[in-house]
Amino acid sequence: MFEALVRDEPGHPVFLYNLGNAYVRTGKLSQAILAFEKALLASPRNTDVRQNLEYARSLLEYRVDDDRNWYLKVTEVALSYFTQLEANFLALVFLALFLLAGSSYFIFKQPVFWGMGRKTLVVFVVATGALAGLKHVQVDMIRPAIIMANECNVRYGPSEHDQIAFKMGEGLKVFIMDRRADWSRVLLTNGENGWVHHEDISEITLT
Fold it and tell me: Whole-prediction pTM value?
């Protein structure tokens, strides 16, 4: 039932959340994790979704260490609490406020333009602009995905003739770095990378 609802409304967080719960109860962990990740895209500050996502991940047999630098981990966590629309909106609001403050200087001939209020606005303009830019990179350029196959062969190149580098289990989160024909080059959080079949992964997107 929830699969049908999600097909009709792919960005509805409640449908995705309940679909994830149904998958957990039927032992389909990769599908559950994908559903929860999508629900988090639509409703990033939903604590129930986050808790159930972590629970589903705890049931995985195959896991990898997160060897990324601490600032990359912190950035990913911070970005996960905003949607792209929210980040863009905040950036535009503070940019508009700064432009209004600048216009008031020229209209009313204020003696001091670079006051503390405008300095603070600049900080917020830069911060929210960086937030919107980084969110775009995270969603549209790095392109996170979930391993859907029970056992996924990762190869050194985009061909069946290339040697298998290592294997991955279902439910792992990877990042798509490149695509060629029926293959995707994916990067793991421990730094390992390789090529996998498209059908072995599913990108985390609401479209």
Answer: 0.85
